[in-house]
Design a protein that fits this description.
Radius of gyration: 23 Å
CATH topology of the largest domain: Heat Shock Protein 90
Largest sheet: 5 strands, mixed
Shape: globular
CATH architecture of the largest domain: 2-Layer Sandwich
Strand content: 15-25%
Number of domains: 2
Number of strands: 7
Number of helices: 6
């Protein structure tokens, strides 16, 4: 009888201690989420202000050098907008908000190519896109496409092109860079893995790509050969 009472007392004490430990943490997480949401909202105003004023300035400028400066400000503002979109996406993911919508992948790819071309003017991105409409996580797919193209540019020092094809519900992104052997292919989804330690970055991009594809029922396949290049295939099943 005494033993049973002691077990009950220990169990109740354990629950009480855990609650004391978890409650402040839960409050902290909620506070952090609220702060992130409020900060994100505040960021929207300066971004909109910069966009509006650069558009107005461009109308009054004729000097080529000044127009180039305005164009650089526009690009920097777009990059800020991208970070804003990413933060908004992460906050919604943390709060389990529904983030699925209906969109066309071919249109999305063209939009990303337009943006990425400004970041990588030395790279020619060729596209061949069939129309494909899906219902899914659009912002997550943007991050996936950007990561794959970014890797293609990063590991293609001696190449100046990337090919993107969309057909038969499959998006193929092909680079002509250093490629990977079979051993490297087995490790690419490991968090923090980088095939070239001299490259900038933290090696978390492809692990994120895989998590997204797994969560959205997209078949992900890499085909790569040393000194030839890498092709990434994303096959959309639920369309």
């Amino acid at each position: 009888m005494l033993g049973a009472f002691l077990l009950f007392f220990i169990a109740v004490s354990g629950v009480f201690i855990v609650k004391l430990a978890v409650d402040p943490l839960s409050e902290y997480v909620i506070h952090l989420q609220n702060l992130s949401t409020e900060t994100l909202h505040e960021l929207n105003l300066p971004i909109s202000t910069i966009k509006t004023n650069t558009q107005m300035l461009r109308k009054s400028l004729e000097n080529e050098k000044s127009l180039k400066r305005i164009a650089r400000i526009d690009t920097a503002c777009e990059m800020l907008q991208e970070r804003y979109n990413e933060l908004d996406y992460l906050i919604k993911m943390q709060s389990n908000e529904k983030i699925r919508e209906t969109f066309r992948i071919d249109t999305l790819v063209q939009e990303r190519v337009g943006f990425l071309a400004k970041l990588y003017p030395q790279i020619k991105i060729n596209t061949e896109l069939q129309i494909l409409e899906i219902h899914g996580d659009k912002k997550g797919l943007i991050k996936v496409i950007d990561n794959i193209v970014d890797n293609g540019v990063k590991y293609s020092q001696n190449s100046t092109k990337i090919d993107i094809k969309l057909e038969d519900a499959t998006l193929c992104i092909q680079d002509y860079g250093i490629g990977m052997d079979e051993t490297e292919l087995l490790q690419i989804f490991d968090t923090y893995y980088q095939s070239n330690k001299n490259m900038q970055g933290f090696g978390i991009g492809l692990s994120m790509v895989k998590r997204y594809c797994d969560a959205n029922h997209i078949e992900l396949r890499f085909v790569s050969e040393k000194n030839v290049g890498t092709t990434v295939n994303l096959k959309f099943k639920n369309i």
